[in-house]
Amino acid sequence: MTAASTPLFLRACRGEATPRAPIWIMRQAGRYLPEYRAVREKVSFLELCKTPALAAEVTLQPLRRFGFDAAILFSDLLVPLEAMGLEVQFTEKGPGLPAPVRTPADVGRVAPFDPEARTGFVMETIRLVRKELPADVPLIGFAGAPFTVATYAIEGKTGKTFGETKKFFYQHPAEARRLLALIGEATRDYLLAQVRAGAQAIQIFDSWVGVVSPDDWDDFVLEPTRALVAAVRASGVPVIYFPNGATTILDRVAKVGADVVGIDWRLPIDEARARLGGAAAVQGNLDPSLLLGPVSVLEKRAVDVVRRGGKRGHIFNLGHGITPEVPVDNVAALVAAVRGA
Amino acid sequence: MTAASTPLFLRACRGEATPRAPIWIMRQAGRYLPEYRAVREKVSFLELCKTPALAAEVTLQPLRRFGFDAAILFSDLLVPLEAMGLEVQFTEKGPGLPAPVRTPADVGRVAPFDPEARTGFVMETIRLVRKELPADVPLIGFAGAPFTVATYAIEGKTGKTFGETKKFFYQHPAEARRLLALIGEATRDYLLAQVRAGAQAIQIFDSWVGVVSPDDWDDFVLEPTRALVAAVRASGVPVIYFPNGATTILDRVAKVGADVVGIDWRLPIDEARARLGGAAAVQGNLDPSLLLGPVSVLEKRAVDVVRRGGKRGHIFNLGHGITPEVPVDNVAALVAAVRGA
Description:
The structure is a homodimer of 341-residue chains. With 341 residues, chain A is α/β, with parallel strands linked by helices. The first copy, chain A, is built from 15 helices and nine strands. Chain A has helices spanning 8-13, 34-40, 45-50, 52-66, 79-83, 115-118, 120-132, 146-155, 163-171, 173-197, 214-233, 250-253, 269-275, 295-309, 328-340; strands at residues 71-72, 89-91, 94-96, 139-144, 201-206, 239-243, 260-262, 281-286, 314-318. In chain A, helix 12 (250-253) links the parallel strand 6 and strand 7. Chains A and B meet through helix 9, helix 11 and helix 14 of A and helix 9, helix 11 and helix 14 of B.
């Protein structure tokens, strides 16, 4: 592929100038789409994740409707955790682990796994999606970052104060680091398998890292995250690291070494880029709640994000996932505003 | 009172040097204390707030046990909201409003109130506590900041994504500003009544302001918050503003004009002070989860906060409220570590 024919999204990932900011949105395959809800009426969330034809279908749905500049695999952060050896149950109230990691001995229950053998449905989904996608729309694979996956392993559910996680860290620092390293290694294998299956970029979601203090970031989070990012980058695909809620410590986030840092909506994206010291391209960062308001306000704020993010090393996105109650017409208006900016 | 006999806490509020950092902790009168749980076994949360003898008793409990350098009124952020005209129900699942503010017309249901007439029990609690407190332990009164109180008014409960609040802001910006101004004016009257009753400092909790974008901060949050802080400061008492989750925009927070800014645990407190540009004293900022871990780690991190916070214009506190599962012995160890640092 020549440089000129390299998809916009990948050029922005590499920090290059683009004629316009490429756009995709987190959770673009989701409940705000009537065609997604139609699929979900027939199968459970977990069945959807584990049925490649259906997972590929919902991955492609937002592309057909909005023509985003990238697709993202439809799956769940906890799919690999289950493959690592911890049982996960999905209920209406969210994911739950009947037997979370609470003692040093429990860490022994977590192990790397063969991604094709244990999560072959994910790799098959990727292969199916790649067959359908046009050449200028790359497919993003993803996984949770070691810290975020560890919070599920330890809390046994979506955390609130994350007291169990931190208590484990403080009481058993060596075993906590061992757990994070194990999760990181298993995630590395899982993501490299996604790349072999056809993923052209990887996003690592650190959804809960905003709850750690800078000391805990330094002591526990940085090293396994940095190692994971480096291992995936070595495969040749760009890596986007999204540390939700950590805009306050972007100087530390820069040390992770990602090609792109996802920025939540809590800081103007030009200020975020400056705090990163130019170490990475940026992705973001419109407040997803703007999609609930009048189109005039949405357009004005979206254009401002494009202006601040610039057209070099900037991928337009929301600062967090789109929510189910968003009207689809507003998403169409957003895409048009960003493309016209 | 001569300068030398001014309580440590008030000297630190004024940005002065102190021989040691004064210490109190957010939610120090709370469920981690067995003597608090004993009171709560007999009365509901709301009865406790509305019974001055009991509210004064639980306000004083942590002082007796730990000898903190300040007391804080026992009450709830939603007590004045109810007095403003919106019915609030307290259940096991948290506060709920049967009829939240969802339309411009609903804003008309919110009105300033006579604090002695409608919330006399709060003022009586303050008077009772002041009679019991030693001269060197000031009493802090408090209220929620306009934005945080508005989220309860609009969401009707503790928010999650705060989509209703933001939707109201974007759809009805003038009415949103009117609502925030009304809440701010009612809160001003309420806090000035607390000062007249004997509160010697005021803390304004902006518990949920971390969810707003910088644009929304500029458009909606700054002005009513700044006006409230200025009005309370004009009474002569220092004002602490605690913008939980807003460590990422401390340059903007400085414009609120508080004497002291409470810092959550997401940024080292010396970096926070620098980002504030020296505009205010600082309060904080130990991660409350450290109280769940080994005392050795707790002590080390607490001493580090004292070192970073310094002994000029620094009030030691947690970066968020103490949680119910904290062992009381760990709180004693924390107080000793801070006093010895």
